[in-house]
Amino acid sequence: MKKRNSLYIKYPPSEPCSCEICRSYCMRPGWWTVEQAKQVINLGYSQRMMIEVSPERDFGVLSPAFKGCEGGIALQKFSKNDCNFYTDGLCELHAIGLLPLECSFCHHERVGLGINCHSDLEKDWKTELGKQLVLKWLKSMQIDKKYLFRI
Question: Is 37 within a domain?
């Protein structure tokens, strides 16, 4: 997978850190690559994901859910909640090797660089593979796509 490998090369994991800045990134779930999200689904974590829909309603991204949005749509009223994988100051995804690319890249020494990573992940989700995975997840969660996307 050339695209996946290129994203991992372009956005290598940062050194583990538990400083206040790095822990604060856990308040806003980062994005997986399409391939990572597929692995997460295959391992049975679909119910702990949420769908984030672009403002233009032309694509969606599957990400770890805010507490309260598990298995559903990312809603503003839950945006102040932590990621549902963040428990007792630790991320469960670290232990199982499923940390989103965006989360692994972010670090207090990389302030301001995350926007590029986020933009490239957006492009990854705008692919046919990304769109198909979103549709498959929506169907499994029994969410009708016509309420989310312009079709």
Answer: yes
